[in-house]
Amino acid sequence: MPGEYRGEPASRFEGYDVLDQRSHWDRTTRRVVLGRLNPGAAAQFFSPDEEPVCRALLDRLLANDDPARKVPVFELVDQGLAKGSTDGWYYDDMPPDAEAWRRSLAELAGQGFAALGIEQQNDLLDGVQEEKTFAGMPASKVWNLWLRYACTAYYSHPWAWSEIGFGGPAYPRGYRNLGVGKREPWEVAEAGAEDPIPWIRRVERARRRHRSGGGS
User: Which of 17, 18, 63, 137 is deepest in the core (most CB within 10 A)?
Assistant: First the structure.
């Protein structure tokens, strides 16, 4: 049941679980946030053929593979598209988001994406970033579309909030200790503040060299 969910302790914010603060949220906020914990399994927007492709794509974009703390990104993206909940805009050289999703997933399906191994999937997605067009659309904007939806879904989930130390909805309690380095009484100090970006960039450069046959 949603009310029984406990967030996974995050290594950077040891022991912190944003859901410990849910008694301070109003009824509507609790209903909306807790509804994201178990959003339902039946796809509303994506077809049975599109679903495995989309699930694999979202898992690769977010490295969302650990079953012990897997955020239901597919379900959240699917529900948003089914409701027509978008950013409210799209590029003038792109179709509306729903069509762009269907066209891009059809292209991935045609390349057997869902059946590939993880490294092969990563290589295929690296290739998308290097192309000018994908599925007849600007490749960079297809990539932008995927990431926008993936990240919006992931970081709307309480487990992700606990992972980054986010205190959750400020209404109706609000925040009083504003400023760099200041914390509310219920917040937890960050255990490690190393910037992961340099390491990620090194990994990506190594993967690209590997794909191009450049060695280490």
Answer: 18
Instruction: Give dist(CA 174, CA 169) in Å, integer.
Output: 8
Residue 194 pLDDT more than 70? Answer: no
The pair of structure tokens assigned to 38 is: 């178990």
- pLDDT tens-place string over residues 30-56: 999 999 998 877 899 999 999 999 999
Residue pair 38/2 in contact by the 8 Å Cβ criterion: yes
**Closest by Cα among 201, 195, 145, 188 to 18:** 188
Rounded to the nearest 10 degrees, how much is the dihedral formed by the CA atoms of 83, 53, 87, 31?
50
Residues 6+ apart with CB under 8 A from 106: 50, 135
Distance separating alpha carbons of residues 69 and 8, to the nearest angstrom: 6
> What contacts 137, CB < 8 A, 6 or more positions away?
93, 94, 95, 100, 103, 104
Nearest alpha carbon to residue 49 among 98, 100, 105, 99: 105
Residue with tokens 């805009």: 89
pTM: 0.81
User: Is 105 in contact with 53 (CB distance < 8 Å)?
Assistant: yes
Residues 146 and 42: their CA atoms lie apart, in Å, by 21
Closest C-alpha among 154, 157, 144 to residue 97: 144
Phi-psi domain of 51 (left: phi exceeds 0; alpha: psi -120 through 50; beta: other): alpha
Sign of the CA dihedral 116, 121, 124, 125?
A: positive
